[in-house]
Amino acid sequence: MATTYYEKDSNLDLLKGKKIVILGYGSQGHAQALNLRDSGLDILVSVRKGGRGYLLAQKHGWVEGKNLVTDNVKAAQAADWVHFLLPDETQKEVWEKEIAPNLKKGSVISFSHGFNIRFSQIAPPKEYDVVLIAPKGPGHLVRRTYEEGKGTPALVAVEQDYSKNALKLALAFCMGIGASRAGVIQTTFSEETETDLFGEQTVLCGGVVDLIKAGFETLIEAGYQPEIAYFECLHELKLITDLIHEGGISWMNYSISDTAEYGEYSRGPRIVTQQTKLAMKQDLAEIQSGEFAKEYLIENRMGRPMFNSYRKKLAEHPIEKVGAQLRSMMPWLKKKE
After folding, report:
1. Is 140 a catalytic residue?
2. Residues 269, 277: contact at Cβ < 8 Å?
3. CA 178 vs CA 15, 132, 182, 232, 301: distances in Å
4. This prediction's pTM
5. Which alpha helices (DSSP H) does 222-273 contain, by range?
6. For residue range 123-167, what is the model confidence (pLDDT) as tens digits?
7. Side-chain half-sphere of 314: how many Cα atoms within 13 Å?
8. Residue 51 has what DSSP assignment?
9. Core vs surface per residue 37-64: b (16+ CB within 10 A) or e
10. Would you call 213 exposed, middle or buried from its count of C-beta atoms within 10 A (0-12, 13-18, 19+)?
11. Catalytic: which of 30, 113, 140, 235?
12. 155 and which of 21, 109, 134, 268 could share a cystine (Cβ 3.0–4.6 Å)?
């Protein structure tokens, strides 16, 4: 069983008197920064001036010149702890040019995704603690559960333990964002990164999206109305995943018809076959070897030609066009730009 830590295992006082710098103010950045501030810690947000994150930070009460800066160099010079919440593809340059030359020895460097440590894009000298604090939920959930007096579970890992106190410091940070209220599971940078990428690519994003599109295309190619195909292959997916999220697969099966449950058992393995599982194993091997990371970093250095092509192709898919029309009939949905 995994080792799990809770509030009783954490001591927030370990962070008292430390200047914690949050790099970035996106989904995780805003949530973690606000939670840490509300926990009574000394937080400094560093974000690009004039951007969306900067405007949001000002809206949330961060004041430039006080607890908001627009210069990562100044942030690093003031820091006892630097928490990277920037996109994976930008972290290496920020580390090398702005953080590493200005961060005092003995500081803590932390991440909420292990990509750059796991794939050796960032290799801090031994005179730093290097830890992972990875909430298992989007930023808005991390913030909302904290405000409700609850918390979002998280993962914690130690890559370098210069202070011989790195795990305790990381658990204190987890307590500050509210994660230890729910539970913090110990892992490694490699395990977090590899499983996170695998889940995104084969199930949560890549697998689900292509399954949705294939089902939609099969129905309209057979002559069914696109609107009906959209409801059956995309719209109702949330109803199913919500049930699984609430109580597992067995709760979902309890909640659906026996006809649907029998179809799951008897027809599902025809769709997700052993060949699919072999493809998943190939994908995992490419993640573990670093092949995917190399491909993604090269793609970004080249200006994202394939990424932008994929995005354009999806935007032009019929499921996106009919979906936009049908969602206009659903006033309970917030419009997404």
Report:
1. no
2. no
3. 14, 15, 8, 38, 37
4. 0.93
5. 226-230, 237-255, 258-271
6. 999 999 999 999 999 999 999 999 999 999 999 999 999 999 999
7. 11
8. S
9. bebebbbbbbbeeeeebbebbeeeebee
10. middle
11. 113
12. 134
- Left (φ > 0), alpha (ψ -120 to 50) or beta: where does 130 sit? beta
For residues 28 and 139, is the Cβ–Cβ distance under 8 A?
Answer: yes
Q: Which amino acid is at 4?
A: T
Q: What is the pLDDT of residues 268-307, one digit of tens each?
A: 999 999 999 999 999 999 999 999 999 999 999 999 999 9
Instruction: Please give the structure tokens belonging to residue 204.
Output: 């949560």
Beta-sheet strand order (sheet of 108-111)? 4-5, 184-186, 154-160, 129-135, 108-111, 81-84, 19-23, 42-46, 68-69
Sequence-distant (6+) residues with CB within 8 A of 134 are 111, 112, 113, 114, 154, 155, 156, 157, 192, 196
Distance of alpha carbon 6 from alpha carbon 32, whole angstroms: 18
Residue closest to 216 by CA, chosen among 315, 336, 322:
322
Q: How far is CA 245 from CA 13, 44, 238, 241, in A?
A: 35, 35, 10, 6
